[in-house]
Amino acid sequence: MITIKTFVPAVAVAGGLSAALLGFGAAPALADPPPPPPPPALGEPVPAWAPPKPAEVWIGQPVVWHSGWGGRWGVWVNGGFIPLTSNPVTGGG
User: Fold this and answer.
1) Which DSSP symbol is given to 70?
2) What is the pLDDT of residues 15-44, one digit of tens each?
3) β-strand 57-58 against 72-77: which pairing, if any?
């Protein structure tokens, strides 16, 4: 004899499996990822008080001015800035 306590859950599970087989449910995420930011290969305008540029290229990357951390010369590699000079304002790192 089938009781209501076993019949209702069995129908619910069967309905869920049927819906999954037919493709109902959560939609797949098909959105394109956002484009990467443009590389800052040209750098920023160099202020008049900036120290001389240490080199034109470093390991194939152009040496550019970056105003962060008080300003310094360095290169952009994989979206990260590698400083090549110390902070000209404080004279330190």
Assistant:
1) G
2) 666 666 666 655 565 666 665 555 555 678
3) unpaired
